[in-house]
Description:
Elements: H1 2-41, H2 50-67, H3 74-85, H4 91-99, E1 109-112, H5 115-119, E2 125-134, E3 139-141, H6 145-152, H7 156-164, E4 173-177, E5 185-193, H8 202-213, H9 218-222, E6 225-229, H10 236-247, E7 270-274, H11 280-302, H12 310-324, E8 327-331, H13 333-338, H14 342-348, E9 356-362, E10 371-383, H15 405-420, E11 425-436, E12 450-452, E13 458-460, H16 468-480, E14 486-491, H17 495-501, E15 505-510, H18 513-526, E16 529-532, E17 550-551, H19 559-568, E18 576-581, E19 587-588, E20 598-599, H20 604-612
Helix pairs in contact: 1-2, 1-3, 8-10, 10-11, 11-15, 14-16, 15-20, 18-20
Amino acid sequence: SSKVLHIQIVRHARFFIVYLVALCLRGLLSMARVACLSAVRAGLCRQPPLVLVASAATTRRSLATLVGPPVAPQRTQRRQHKRCFGVAATPAAVADQSKALGQFEFPPTSTCSSLKDALEGETPAISVVFVAGEGEALKPKLEGVATDLDEALNGKLSQFLDAEEFEAKAASSKVMFDPSGVSNRSIIVGLGDLSKLSEIDWRVAGATASKALLTLPATSVKASKVNLVCPDGAKSRDLLEGFYLGLHTTKQFKGKQTRDKLKTVPLPASLKLVNFGEGSESVASVAQSVARGVILARDMVNAPANVLTPATMASIAQALASETGLEATILEKEQCEEMGMGSFLAVARCSDVPPRLIHLVYRPEGGEAKRKVGIVGKGLTYDAGGYNLKLGAAAMVEKMKFDMGGAAATLGAARAVAALKPADVEVHFIIATCENMVSGNVGALHPGDIITAMDGTTIEVNNTDAEGRLTLADALLYCQQQKVEEIVDIATLTGACMIALGDEISGLWSNSDELATLLQESSKTAGEKVWRMPLEASYFEGMKSDLADMKNTGPSFGGAITAALFLQKFVQKDVKWAHLDIAGPVWSDKAKSLHNGGGTGCMVRTLTEFVRR
């Protein structure tokens, strides 16, 4: 009898365990299905996986007799909705956040011939001066207009620097508070060794000044006029450009847990440019135009993939065209299919988010252009790697929103060029934008697929994570249909370039010494670093295919070079072409020099300078 009792207890225990498991499964599946369907109805995500919907329904039917009908968990649905979609909780929120990208207002700027005139008036003043140092201790030496400020403050500035034992190291700063003086606060920025003034990075000096300004109480900054005093012999445009860029930080994704005063940048009531010399109005206009382009690129790179989609990027381009007078053409998936863009669309079909091809045109006023230039940007708004999935910390999958850094630089340059209106040059800005995901969609990319580019070239895909070059192939071919004579493509293309050059230098490849030299000179003027790399033709041997015209990747070594060689195959021999790999400098993990942490807006300044030459 005890044995029979034991068997009955075991049977009841098994039934109870099965009941609990079934109850948990039913609840979990119902919650997941309701949350996904609600999100789809709200337009916040793509179609939920059919296997989830089907399996939920099947499980409920099979368990109905055991655990009874399910109850829709309404409160859980709302919590799941908020957790899944974060900052972009509704389509309207996404639209608002995307419209805010690149929208940054600078303080009203005017010029002043002397510091004495700038200090007049009842508005509280914050004066910014720059000093170099002497000797090993880099003791600051007040010269030129800085001595004028010291005299206006009755010697308090020099006394303060002595008392604080300030070392005038490059990118250092100190703030002096003098509520009774003609300048309530004075910001002193170090320039480094006085004997090495030719090596000063004036953009970094300007950014150091504005970052020091933003450490002051917001109410004081907003109520004050800032006197930016340009030292004798300084590069005034670089100084002001750096000052403007130092004011910017991406704030639009801050939510209710952030205090309101921390959601905006406290800008001064006005900015006075002191000692900037003749043409200071023009200097300010150019500096602002370039800075606006860089800020647009920064904000786009910082934007998450649930905000910045291909459609959003196309909307930004259209708004930019309306604002600046650029011509805009946006091609949708069906139009790209008609043009035979099989390489681009093979990547685009890996995602349910529709692709776009963006084409903006700048034409000079009053006459024919002497140069026709194409700038082509890689526009992967998110790159999971496809079936060659990005795995491990080195893959940086959480940062792959920045894989549209080339497109951001392209639109940033378009914004700056349209504002500066260079003469005698026509520029075509082209972006093929999509996502690279894992998908079972018909026509989506698998390893081993053979796809056909716009010119009929067949490509054997041996790595779906080398997708950027596939999108660029068709974009380059489309660009050449516009009869351009020079093309610069810009892309976060390879980790190999990051390994070779680090996170501050962009790689440069070109089939033209003339074009390469022009880009190198432009980057030097713009304060950005590029390094010319070899187009070693023999390396292409590793990309030959037995089945197609070529593979999309080569052997493990020299990956940045083979990527450039791949792109060169889609450039006609009579077209001057250069390739910029910005995988390293596109992002900064922490604030340094001109940049806050995040997107740097790299190469906007170089591309703008290149077009203007």
